[in-house]
Amino acid sequence: MIEVRGVGIRRLDHEPVAVVGLVVDLAASDAERLPTAPETVVRGIRLPRLAVAEGTDPLPAVLALLRLPGADQVAH
Which of 1, 24, 28, 47 has a CB 3.0–4.6 Å from the CB of 51, allowing a cystine? Predict the structure, then answer.
């Protein structure tokens, strides 16, 4: 189920299994202009992390990160 703002709760098909290649942490209190250790651990698995400051549009940073050399190893 998903909430669509202005429309309400809707039932959608979903993918029961997915591979996570990047954690985008929205409104992160520790977001830095030049992060030193952009990783996090989720259920024992170390993943790249993009900390986005509150009030910042995350899309440009996500797109820039995915265009970097080696990005195919970050998110699939």
Answer: 28
